[in-house]
């Protein structure tokens, strides 16, 4: 079992949201659709970004060999977050035969995610 954790300043993400193609480069279409339904959109985007970074730490590679938008941090109807993979990220997960649990939280200024790989 390994653990990855990451904290992101929400203000930093708010500044990036308006940059050309940031959302498309970093987030999947499913995530972008989820964001559009949320209040406090920046907090949710920051939490999803932290989840991607925490995942990369949990697998021990950093953001290498896959694109960030190949990892989706989505939510079940009850609000529980989960990770979904595509492309090279899916291949890495399958090769390593890992499962993941993820938890996210945020305040007015910070978003944090923890990913446990087992």
* Overall average residue pLDDT: 95
Q: What is the number of independent domains?
A: 1
| End-to-end CA span | 4 Å
* The CATH topology: Ribosomal Protein L22, Chain A
Bulk shape: globular
Mind telling me the C-alpha Rg? 13 Å
Strand arrangement across the biggest beta sheet: 1-5-4
Q: Label the CATH architecture.
A: Alpha-Beta Complex
Decide which structural class fits the backbone. alpha+beta
Give the helix proportion (percent range). 40-55%
Q: Main beta sheet, described? A: 3 strands, antiparallel
**Secondary-structure element series:** EHHHHEEHEE
| Percentage of residues in DSSP E strands | 25-35%
What do we call the CATH homologous superfamily?
4'-phosphopantetheinyl transferase domain
For the record, the CATH class is Alpha Beta
Strands, total number: 5
Q: Number of DSSP helices?
A: 5
Poorly predicted spans: none
Quick rundown:
With 118 residues, this protein is an alpha+beta fold.
Key phrases:
two-stranded antiparallel ribbon, three-stranded antiparallel sheet, globular, Ribosomal Protein L22, Chain A, 118 residues, 5 helices, 28% strand, alpha+beta
What would you note in describing this structure?
By secondary structure, this protein is α+β, with helices and mostly antiparallel strands. The chain has one domain (2-117): Ribosomal Protein L22, Chain A, CATH 3.90.470.20. The protein is built from five helices and five strands. The protein has helices at residues 10-17, 22-26, 29-36, 41-58, 87-96, and strands spanning 2-9, 71-75, 81-85, 100-106, 110-117. The strands form two sheets. A three-stranded antiparallel β-sheet has the order 1-5-4. A two-stranded antiparallel sheet has the order 2-3. A hairpin with a 5-residue loop joins strand 2 and strand 3 (81-85).
